[in-house]
């Protein structure tokens, strides 16, 4: 996938941007609060329909403007496509692909992998962040997963309502449990399969990027015991139903669901030891960088094409060695990258399209 042109109008402090993208590495450099992250946010919004910084589209419109607009032309599997997103204060949000109104789940939309400083804490942060990581990737890769996840969240809310209102002895609650377990097992099965792909990709990447001999493994951690070496839908459903029966008194007391994929986790092991406990901070950050690169390669393996890679101010959070290794990897990569940085150090050595960003304007800077 290649982004070719990007137009941004009245989006935060980006009033009038017309960008011709480089085919490989695109770098935006400048001080804080100049508009670098806004640029990446516009691409992300065009891909997902959501910002990674705010839930309110109203916050994204440039002061005193009535609407924002983001338009792109891009190539996907040798097909030329365009997408347009605009939001009006009075009329809401509209999205088009090739001049036809489309949902944000459309198969021809842009795909992105975003890497921002918070992702460096994926390993040692709370499980909710790792579940959100899995859900975001799988929703982009699979409409089926999105369908199962939405169904699961709906039935989870309904089940919690019955628990909260002490209606767990009704026939309706028994039916809800059956649907709950069925949808949960389908969500977990896709997560487990995807985790297996990540595990396979991450091992060699981690050794190459860290330049160390440590081994990295990734495992999906289910929130209930499964007494089997094999995993399939039937085994998951039976094990989950058994655990629900064992926890029913606790659930009635606490009035919430204590089992299910909303409580699962993703575990990282360095040399067979849990990384969030035993790995150093530098090693944990290496794992996070490796995970985001593996996310890119998993798109290629599953969908046949790389997404765009968006890196927002990540370089400043890495030490010099890891920063150099990452830049060396990106400059020779087969995918298209958009990277923001406050510092110029090392940037002038990179091939690619480089812009200084000042007060919402892009100023081309050439290196000799």
Q: Would you identify the CATH H-level superfamily of the largest domain?
A: P-loop containing nucleotide triphosphate hydrolases
Strand order of the largest sheet: 2-1-4-5-6-7
Number of helices: 8
The global form is: globular
CATH class of the largest domain reads: Alpha Beta
Overview of the molecule:
The chain is of the alpha/beta class and 368 residues long. The chain folds into two domains: 168 residues, 3-Layer(aba) Sandwich (Rossmann fold); 158 residues, Glutathione S-transferase Yfyf (Class Pi), Chain A, domain 2 (Up-down Bundle). Helices cover 41% and strands 24% of the residues. The strands form three sheets. Strands 2-1-4-5-6-7 form a six-stranded antiparallel β-sheet, with helices on one face. Strands 8-12-13-3-14-15 form a six-stranded mixed β-sheet, sandwiched between helices. Helix 3 packs across helix 4 and helix 4 crosses helix 7. The longest helix is centred in the middle third of the chain and has 40 residues. It is globular and about 65 Å long. 35% of the residues are buried. The model has no long low-confidence stretch (mean pLDDT 92).
